[in-house]
Design goal:
2 domains; alpha+beta; 12 strands; globular; 6-stranded mixed sheet; Nuclear Transport Factor 2, Chain: A; 401 residues
Length: 401
């Protein structure tokens, strides 16, 4: 089901990360598992007993600075015993690295050969992650990453998959790759989808709203994209070798029709059919059957759309610019049930040629790769809330390469 079945296992944790009370599997057991397994239905949490909402009910002082008390836990072989569950792990390592400024903790929580896909392309190895984190903390010394949601699935054997939605806050008082300090305050979305085992993250897709960041800093987004493209000297962005190949048209045939199943019967089927029907089949009328009438969507560059009509207009504007756009769902996991509703993480990718008019300027004829992460809150069989962040600045950079 997931594209991440091609990932390698992380390097073995150090002895200090293997407490006697929570031993890691022996070397023979690890060596037999060259690739981690795909997620299946049984790996999806059936309720919200382990969730961000449950985690923060005791107040900030009860979870940020120490191991929280009284929370539901699950087996976490090889993880530092201070972490109660995977939500606790994600929230507290983020706080320790970014806000407590223990940036070197990345060495303990990321594998040495981890792969990280951001809105520009592939970043390889934890040393690059350390350098980038130092850079961002220097540019925004008062940076805060406020957790807004953590969707998770998996277990200690197949790996824990987490989709961490955060609101980034900070003041640009230091130099950054975009230039001199502006003194401006920023607030933007970020989504990070990680896979972790034995206290180490070894694969991550992270999308920062870089275009929105530039707008808030008062920096021209288009000119910055041109400058970055020139610096790349025409080098193409690397294709994501873990993403599925987007396919819309079989030769000269027409896009296949996919029946939209009920959420209760087949949630993954609902997700895949919804993406295919709207994006590949171009059935924008189906949006009325996929989204609730009062849906709210929040997206890149501060976009907020209310109701199916506004969402339809946004999707039409993207396909108008890229008329041959082919969309693929690369990864899906969720938590919840029919009574309480579901929260879903969807990682997707698309390929299209810039042949139409829109906010990205005159058509360039360039083929671009889009990738993003969406989170859906589903209730009563329809999407009631959506958060979507995609590589908008990366798209502009490709157009000007």
């Amino acid at each position: 089901m997931t594209a991440t079945t091609q990932d390698r296992l992380p390097a073995e944790a150090t002895a200090g990360n293997k407490p006697k009370s929570n031993p890691a599997p022996d070397r023979a057991q690890e060596s037999s598992r060259v690739q981690f397994e795909a997620l299946a239905r049984e790996h999806m949490p059936k309720d919200f007993s382990i969730s961000l909402d449950a985690y923060r009910r005791g107040g900030t002082d009860n979870f940020i600075g120490k191991a929280p008390q009284g929370l539901a836990s699950h087996p976490m072989r090889g993880f530092d015993p201070t972490y109660v569950n995977i939500v606790d792990y994600i929230v507290r390592i983020t706080h320790r690295i970014w806000e407590e400024k223990d940036i070197g903790y990345i060495y303990d929580t990321y594998s040495h050969d981890c792969t990280v896909w951001d809105d520009i392309g592939l970043q390889y190895g934890r040393d690059k992650i350390v350098a980038d984190t130092v850079h961002t903390n220097n540019a925004f010394p008062d940076i805060r990453l406020v957790a807004d949601e953590v969707v998770w699935a998996g277990n200690e054997d197949v790996g824990f998959h987490t989709s961490h939605r955060t609101k980034i806050l900070g003041t640009n008082t230091g130099y950054s790759r975009f230039g001199a300090p502006t003194g401006r305050r920023v607030q933007l979305w970020c989504m990070a989808n990680c896979v972790a085992r034995a206290n180490e993250i070894f694969h991550e897709h992270v999308i920062y709203d870089t275009a929105g960041l530039l707008q808030q800093l008062g920096i021209d987004v288009v000119e910055t994209a041109r400058r970055f493209a020139a610096a790349r000297a025409g080098a193409a962005l690397p294709s994501n070798f873990l993403a599925g190949e987007p396919k819309r048209l079989p030769g000269q045939g027409k896009p296949a029709e996919m029946t939209l199943p009920s959420v209760e019967d087949d949630l993954e089927g609902f997700v895949r059919a919804a993406f295919h029907t709207v994006w590949n089949r171009r059935n924008f009328g189906a949006i009325d059957n996929i989204y609730g009438p009062n849906v709210v969507m929040q997206g890149s560059t501060g976009r907020v759309y209310r109701g199916a009509g506004q969402i339809r207009s946004f999707l039409l504007s993207i396909v108008a610019m890229f008329p041959d756009l082919a969309m693929n769902v690369d990864d899906v996991y969720w938590m919840g049930n029919a009574r309480e509703g579901y929260v879903v993480s969807i990682r997707w990718s698309a390929v299209g040629t810039h042949r139409g008019f829109g906010p990205y300027g005159e058509p360039t004829g360039k083929q671009v790769n889009l990738w993003g992460i969406s989170q859906w809150a589903i209730d009563k069989g329809r999407i009631q809330k959506e958060w979507t962040v995609f590589n908008e600045f990366g798209v502009l950079t490709q157009l000007f390469s």
